[in-house]
UniProtKB/TrEMBL annotation:
One GO process term, biological-process aspect: asparagine biosynthetic process
UniProt keywords, alphabetically: Amino-acid biosynthesis, Asparagine biosynthesis, Glutamine amidotransferase
Protein known as: Asparagine synthetase domain-containing protein
GO molecular function list: asparagine synthase (glutamine-hydrolyzing) activity
Asparagine synthetase domain residues: 382-431, 540-624
Pfam families linked: Asn_synthase (PF00733)
Residues covered by region (Disordered): 304-334
Residue stretches of biased makeup (Polar residues): 322-334
Length: 669
């Protein structure tokens, strides 16, 4: 996990190919004031292990033998302690301009300022961004995952992207790369990523994020009022980030739509400014394009197909057993055989997904010897935690993590509540812990109970407001606060053998040190877990349901993942999404819709049917029958927010508070 950013000044941008109006002046109320120090601080929270910064200066030259101007470049490292006072304050001007920083630059000059902060999770040696090779190509990246420091591999591949060397086809996560262009290489990366890359030979800046938006990347497009081009993993906390005149300043940033972009820099013309032409490129991986289109072959069942599917619905059993990865459906007993091979296929894909996201070969190993030298026994280390409500999705992830992770490691289950022991998610988490202990008694499970009181979280609320930016509804804020607190992992654990019904149980203050957090995002979108899916089905049957699920998957980057990534990463944790693995998405798309879900059946039975069958295969019979409950309701932050901002739940419901834009001044006292 990393925090990356870029600031460009001195370039006039042509955004016509993106259909963005680059000349429309931005109102003053939409200017967001922050300093370089603010930006560094925000990035360092995401990447606490290292922070690097380099400047690329472009200037024009006129060769004696040619009438056209050429572009020359130079680079220099920027040390944090050496930043000038002007640079520290360069974002503090009211109109968003940055004249103070660039007042000494030549009139025909442009500057690209790269930032990269790293949370070291992979490889055996530390790495500091930005990465720069001998050709002066510059790369800052977020989470190009693999067994080594794949950023270095990616930089090499991008530097050689015009060649067809056989070496380029045999690299970890870069399946089949080396096709001859930057889009070819980026299209073949599996897993979440966001990058900013300067290609020196062509004077082109490349940037983008993966096709599902699993890593955050925000953009500020240049305007007449603010000519900068900015990219950042996160919005810095601004000194003026407060509600003013009934609105909040949230429109400075946009979520960058998923895809691959380039800015080709041309030499200055008469106005002395470099010209940057912005383009969006098509994905070149046919398999990825199919996943993005999210088209399912079998959507509407014939009556006999629906009857057969319904007749195979499992009777919930409490004696179901976990299956091994090499077990065949025909050898799994009558329950598994009646379940069809479809649930088995989903189970195996999910297990591989969790394995990829929890393998110790992909977890940074430096410092382990130091820990051992301090006489900390290895089985007290917790490399991976689960965002845990005790619901269907998190129970499946926890059970699969147990099967994938070395048994000597503990597993932290992070649970947040705004109503103490009475919150639905706390109740289901305790029940889920008991079920996990039943199927995996040798594993040391730690349920980390994180309790919060919303009215007292004044500073935290302001901070999370900056993290969810550009999202701006009470629902986004409630989810963001819950995720941010859960990812922090600061709570209480109880003695392993204590009875949860015992008022005198022994509790211990505990803060999870796991840097990897497994999250269940994507399960509801792909398996019809939301209430609106049932509504669409009732009003328009299978086709309407499919279209609603497709819409959810194609907008998950904007509605969910960018926000969630920022709130979790702010704690120096990396969110990983097993349900959004490309292979899992492909498997689920290949299953007939009526085998994925059956909304003629009641909640807790037919919704997310395929995942309930997976839970049965894992021995999670109780979890398999649990209804869907969103984090804002299960933790009861939505109820507390409604009371705080509207006076009561009834008043909030009448005002549609969940989707309401935050409209009044937050209490920052």
């Amino acid at each position: 996990m990393c925090g990356i950013a870029l600031i460009i000044h001195g370039v006039r941008f042509d955004l016509s190919s993106l259909l963005i109006n680059s000349t429309f002046p931005v109102p003053k109320s939409e200017q967001l004031v922050f300093t370089i120090a603010d930006l560094r601080a925000a990035l360092r929270r995401r990447g606490p292990d290292s922070l690097g910064s380099w400047k690329l200066l472009l200037h024009s030259t006129v060769p004696s033998c040619l009438p056209e101007r050429e572009i020359a470049s130079s680079i220099e490292e920027v040390k944090e302690e050496s930043c000038s006072e002007d640079e520290r304050n360069c974002f503090s001007l009211a109109n968003g301009q940055t004249e103070s920083q660039f007042s000494t630059m030549p009139s025909s000059a442009a500057e690209l300022h790269f930032f990269g902060a790293s949370l070291q999770l992979r490889g055996i040696s530390p790495i500091v961004q930005p990465l720069i090779n001998s050709s002066q190509n510059i790369l800052v990246y977020n989470d190009i995952g693999g067994e080594e420091n794949d950023g270095e591999v990616l930089l090499q591949l991008l530097g050689e992207c015009r060649s067809c060397s056989p070496y380029l086809h045999n690299t970890n996560n870069f399946d089949g790369m080396g096709e001859g262009s930057v889009p070819d290489i980026l299209s073949r990366i599996k897993g979440p990523w966001a990058i900013i890359y300067w290609q020196e030979s062509s004077k082109t800046l490349w940037f983008g994020r993966d096709a599902f938006g699993r890593r955050s990347l925000l953009v500020h497009w240049p305007t007449v009022a603010d000519s900068r081009f900015l990219l950042s993993s996160v919005s810095p906390v601004s000194s003026d980030f407060e509600a003013e005149n009934g609105t909040t300043k949230l429109s400075f940033w946009e979520e960058l739509p998923c895809g691959i972009y380039s800015i080709s820099i041309d030499a200055p013309k008469l106005d002395g400014l470099f010209l940057g032409e912005v383009k969006k490129h098509e994905w070149t991986n046919a398999i990825l394009e199919e996943l993005i289109k999210w088209e399912r072959t079998s959507v509407e069942p014939k009556p006999e197909e629906l009857h057969i599917s319904s007749s195979k619905t499992l009777t919930r059993k409490h004696d179901s057993h976990s299956v091994n990865s090499d077990a065949l459906p025909s050898k799994s007993g009558p329950m598994q055989a009646s379940n069809s091979v479809l649930a088995q296929a989903v189970l195996m894909a999910l297990k591989e997904s969790v394995m990829r996201r929890s393998s110790l070969h992909t977890i940074f190993q430096a410092g382990r010897h130091d820990v051992e030298n301090e006489l900390v026994v290895e089985n007290e280390l917790v490399p991976v935690a689960v965002l845990f409500s005790g619901g269907l999705d998190s129970m499946i992830i926890a059970a699969l993590l147990h099967e994938c992770l070395d048994p000597s490691y503990d597993i932290d289950l992070l649970n947040v509540s705004f109503d103490g022991r009475s919150a639905p998610d706390r109740i289901s988490a305790k029940a889920g812990l008991n079920e996990l202990r039943r199927i995996a008694p040798t594993r040391k499970w730690k349920l980390v109970e994180i309790d919060a009181d919303l009215p007292t979280l004044t500073f935290e609320t302001k901070h999370v407001m900056s993290l969810i930016n550009p999202a701006n509804t009470y629902m986004d804020l409630n989810i963001g606060i819950a995720l941010w607190l859960a990812a922090g992992g600061d709570g209480w654990v109880y003695e392993e053998n204590s009875n949860y019904n015992d008022e005198d149980r022994q509790c211990i203050k505990y803060k999870s040190k796991a840097r990897i957090l497994l999250v269940g995002s994507g399960a509801d979108e792909q398996c019809a877990g939301y209430g609106r899916h049932r509504t669409k089905y009732r009003n328009g049957s299978w086709l309407a349901l499919h279209e609603e699920m497709k819409l959810d998957m194609q907008r998950i980057w904007k509605r969910n993942l960018g926000r969630d990534d920022r709130c979790i990463a702010d704690n120096g944790k990396e969110a990983r999404f097993p349900f959004l693995d490309e292979d899992v998405i492909k498997i689920l798309l290949g299953i007939p819709l009526w085998e994925v879900t059956n909304l003629d059946q009641p909640s807790g039975v037919g919704d997310k049917k395929i995942l309930r069958e997976v839970a049965e295969l894992l021995g999670l019979s109780e979890a398999a029958a649990l209804p869907k409950r969103a984090i804002q309701f299960g933790s009861r932050i939505a109820r507390e927010s409604n009371r705080k901002n509207y006076g009561s739940n009834r008043a909030a419901n009448q005002a549609s508070a969940g989707s309401a834009v935050i409209h009044k001044q937050l209490d920052m006292a």
